[in-house]
Amino acid sequence: MNKTNRLITIIVTVILVAIVAAYLWDARSTVAVLSSTLRQSTPLVLGALCGLLCERSGVINIGIEGQMLFGAFIGFLANVYTGNLIMAIVAALLAGALSGLLLAYMSVSLKMDQIIAGTVLNILALGVTGYFYQQGLTTQGKLPTVPLGPLADLPLVGPVLFSNPPITYATLLLVMVVHYVLFYTRWGLRTRAVGEKPRAADTLGINVYKVRYWNVIIGGMLAGLAGGFLTLEAVGTFERNMTNGRGFIALAVLIFGKWTPFGAWGGALLFGFAIAAQTQLQLSGAVDIPHQFIGMLPYVLTILVLAGFIGRSRPPAASGIPYEK
Hints:
The protein is an all-alpha fold. It has 14 helices and 2 strands, in the order H-H-H-H-H-E-H-E-H-H-H-H-H-H-H-H. It starts with a helix and ends in a 16-residue tail after the last helix.
């Protein structure tokens, strides 16, 4: 795609966002939309960080959707049977770690085509969670909102940034942690080396397989936490296929953010705004068009962003290529 087409895509995207913002512009709606934007972006950020760790180490993760679904389901069951939200979060993390281990085994050890391995994981998650889910299960509540003292009373900023549930706060912290670890630590340097030049890294004594395994497992934990957000913080219950394509949108966010934590966060906020605006438009009746068209807004934005940015975003050089000693 040439520069002119990219510029047109960016302009169209900005115009769409501006039109939606104009329809929603008043103090109460602004706070509601911005707060919802942050929370709607949370699972997308976590999913994108999962994909980031995997791809930076050389493993394409198409299975983020399935990992999120496993985390959502196991976290929900843990909440139902233990009534302990901390244990439920731990269960969601473990579910994500195990799904990451399975993906790493298929991609790194068995050297399967990584796209097929991720697709297998998605189908497995959809089938297993759908088969074992029982209607009528009730949870013991969900994570509460935790206002951060006087900061929560600040105009506009307070309700948006300083009055959120725990996983939302943790996600903001994780963006900074992953950025620091990836670009300012030895572990991050080795991860990036393995994702770009695995043979050169191997000659320097770096265990390529070990680095890839750990990054895919840790990435799986982040995707599991994204699923846990849906059942333990956002909704409080589980429904079949409740991730509803968020794992694939997270991949688009990752591409949009050029495989960087802060770039992915910015992309997730953009998509989160589209989802929040879609919900607010449907509730307010601000536009007199069929709700199906409003519901398409996040996915239209996904297509526009991919069309405008995928051509100039370069993934890690060894991403998707099994390593042979």
